[in-house]
């Protein structure tokens, strides 16, 4: 028995729609951004070294960047921080595991009393 062209078109359309729905329900990468101002601005190198050593190797981290503000000459760019950190996770479960990982908690305990302020931002990408 041969399927009609309309039936084949309907099946193909359903497959495309279902594939699109599956793609939208799949986990998105989570980018965790921190902008840290220290009480003693001279400690930024030590904080960067600790972040590099402790955060980057945590399982589930698929991307990591850490650095100090770069003056690009643009007045509209916020420069009110000593160190920026970006940690990227494949999904929410990797992010949740990171938050309780011994390396992360040790870093927070070691440095939190030296923070003047910290701004946190999380966003997702597909």
Beta strand count: 4
User: How much helicity do the residues have?
Assistant: 40-55%
Broad structural category: alpha+beta
Rg over CA atoms, rounded to whole Å, is 22 Å
Strand-residue proportion: 25-35%
Main sheet: strand order: 2-3-1-4
Work out the helix count.
4
Q: Which regions contain 5 or more consecutive residues with pLDDT less than 50?
A: 1-23
Instruction: Supply the CATH class.
Output: Alpha Beta
Which sequence of SSEs, written as H and E, runs from N to C?
HEHEEHHE
What is the architecture at the second tier of CATH? 2-Layer Sandwich
Remind me, CATH topology? Answer: Alpha-Beta Plaits
Calculate the mean pLDDT score and round it.
Answer: 85
Shape: globular
Tell me the major beta sheet.
4 strands, antiparallel
Cα-to-Cα separation, first versus last residue: 42 Å
Give the total of domains.
1
């Amino acid at each position: 028995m041969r399927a009609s062209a309309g039936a084949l078109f309907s099946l193909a359309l359903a497959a495309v729609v279902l594939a699109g729905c599956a793609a939208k329900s799949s986990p998105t990468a989570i980018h965790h951004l921190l902008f840290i101002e220290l009480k003693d601005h001279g400690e930024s190198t030590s904080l960067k070294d600790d972040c590099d050593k402790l955060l980057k190797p945590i399982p589930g981290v698929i991307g990591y960047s850490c650095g100090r503000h770069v003056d690009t000459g643009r007045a509209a760019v916020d420069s009110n921080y000593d160190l920026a950190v970006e940690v990227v996770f494949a999904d929410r479960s990797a992010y949740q595991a990171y938050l309780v990982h011994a390396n992360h908690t040790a870093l927070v305990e070691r440095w939190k009393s030296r923070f003047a302020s910290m701004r946190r931002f999380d966003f997702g990408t597909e």
